[in-house]
Amino acid sequence: MPTDLKSASLLEISQELTRFNYELRGLFRCPTCLCDYPINSKEITEEHIIPDSNGGRITTFLCKKCNSLFGHKQTRWLSDWIELSESNTPFHVDPKKQRAQLMASGLKLNGVIKIAEDGAIEFQADKKRSNPIDFEAYWSRPKSSEITIKMQVSVFGNENSLRVGFLTAAYGLWFKNFGYSFVLQSSLNVVRQQILNPETDIMNWNYLIEMPAREIANPCIGLMRFGVDYFPIALIYDQLVILPSPKRPHPSSTSPSKMSKKVIGFAEAIASRYQHRCVGPAVLICDGQEVINPDLIPNATIPPQYSWVDRWD
Ligand SMILES: [Zn+2]
Description:
GO terms for molecular function: endonuclease activity. The protein contains seven helices and 16 strands. The protein is an alpha+beta fold. The longest helix is centred in the middle third of the chain and has 25 residues, at 159-183. The model has no long low-confidence stretch (mean pLDDT 82). It binds zinc ion (ZN).
């Protein structure tokens, strides 16, 4: 993002924050750690909500600390996952990423794994990344009959980070669309804790539901009913991410029989009303149930805008 566009966006975000509390003027509040920074601070960085390969360039702002703590890592697992799923092979489409190590007669060569046109798996040694002595020795000696190739598909070794990657993307999408009205809810503390600690199981319930088929072209947000309760959700690639509502931390069950199949997608339903960005304070109510209700409303400098979504049968 060019610098002038970045400062214009940050000014807009900061003006929204001021609507919740006048004392917060000129500040940017990081959506994940909730720390405040002056809007011209170098500590504010742009981060991709959804990796490039899917859904285009959807970005948000984060503080540098959060970005380096989880931003790059989770985005990487998520984009790795998307790439692997799309290619339908356990290998990366880009062979440069699928690193492997070959071991034979006590020598070690580093390289990459490739799939040849006839479907054969090929190891391609990389001279620059291998020990030069081993590399030379391997090619000059008679070939060993026993060769071991070791490789690690990083994304499978990081399942927890991948799960949290989807959660982070869902949280980011909601922030992108509903701004601080969404973020300034204490009901989301558990989500923020989970995002900031991807290795630990903090949200110990099933917030990810795999979709049977890819039913959506673009990542989107919406509402979904589980039993009698409504929850904010996001559809990202082949996963449905369920977020807490102010009323309940999570659905009592996510078993398919208890799930309403109906999703209110905000893409058509209310995106036009907000022009893809809701400027708060805003309270969102679906069929009489609060789905968004920011905690800071008592200090707000302007009255909250109530939005009702009454589209359920
Ligand atoms: Zn932060």
